[in-house]
Amino acid sequence: MARYTAAVCRLCRTEGKKLFLKGERCHGAKCPITKKRNPPGKGPRSRMRKPSNYGIQLREKQRLKRIYGMLERQFHNVFEKADQMGGKTGDNLISLLECRLDNIVFRMRFATSRSQARQLVSHGHVLVNGKRVTVPSFTVKENDQVEIQEKSKKLLVIKEGLREFTRSGVVPWLEVDPDNMKGTVKAIPRRSDVTDIAEVNEQLIVELYSK
């Protein structure tokens, strides 16, 4: 399975804002974007000019794609599926991204970042409705139960992730039993439910792919 393996802090600097790709570690003062405000690369100041409409749309797509840790082909496939569904394509896109298994594991606080959640799924630590699923892009449906398999419940990374549950809980459309390390998808999230990416303008992405 192809995946991005370079330094993720460069992605935040490229987008000009924190994408929180490393979870809690992105909140500290040591985050590179707090020290290096300019984009990475040689002579970035000479490349800083007013972007075109296409450039604005592209940046929005790149930002959302990187937040969810996806490659271009994966992201485009999700967009095509969203476009074939009824309703607003942008809203469908966000819902489909949120229903990915790796994102659900992250949202349930079993991992501190989506990349860590993706690794937990790939290594077979996660069960969906009692069956092991090793595909991070697996689409979780309403009333599905997601849990950590018994022999993996002692993993330190999962316990560290659940510390965030004690501090801030989970999103309203999920229900989590932290003691048993399992949770249930109570509803498919709507666009308005995904508040931590409220500044993302998905309509720009729709316009980009519609050209």
Task: Please give a structural write-up.
The chain has nine helices and five strands; from the N terminus they run αααααααβββαββα. It has a five-stranded antiparallel β-sheet, with helices on one face. With 211 residues, the chain is α+β, with helices and mostly antiparallel strands. The chain has helices spanning 9-15, 32-35, 53-67, 72-84, 89-98, 101-107, 114-122, 156-168, 202-209; strands at 126-128, 131-132, 145-148, 174-177, 182-185. 41% of the residues lie in helices and 8% in strands. It folds into two domains: 9-97 and 196-209, Orthogonal Bundle (Ribosomal Protein S4 Delta 41, Chain A, domain 1), CATH 1.10.1050.10; 103-185, Structural Genomics Hypothetical 15.5 Kd Protein In mrcA-pckA Intergenic Region, Chain A, CATH 3.10.290.
Put the structure in a nutshell.
This protein is an alpha+beta fold and 211 residues long.
How is the topology of this model organized?
Blueprint: H1 9-15, H2 32-35, H3 53-67, H4 72-84, H5 89-98, H6 101-107, H7 114-122, E1 126-128, E2 131-132, E3 145-148, H8 156-168, E4 174-177, E5 182-185, H9 202-209
Largest sheet, order of strands side by side? 2-1-3-5-4
Along the chain, the helix and strand elements come as HHHHHHHEEEHEEH
Total domains, how many? Answer: 2
Helix content: 40-55%
Low-confidence stretches: none
Largest sheet: 5 strands, antiparallel
Shape: globular
Radius of gyration: 18 Å
**Number of E-state strands:** 5
What is the class of the largest domain in the CATH system? Mainly Alpha
CATH superfamily of the largest domain: Ribosomal protein S4/S9, N-terminal domain
Question: Number of DSSP helices?
Answer: 9
Under CATH, the topology of the largest domain can be stated as Ribosomal Protein S4 Delta 41, Chain A, domain 1
Mean pLDDT, to the nearest integer, reads: 87
What share of residues are in beta strands?
A: 5-15%
Give the terminus-to-terminus CA distance.
Answer: 29 Å
Structural class: alpha+beta
What would CATH call the architecture of the largest domain? Orthogonal Bundle
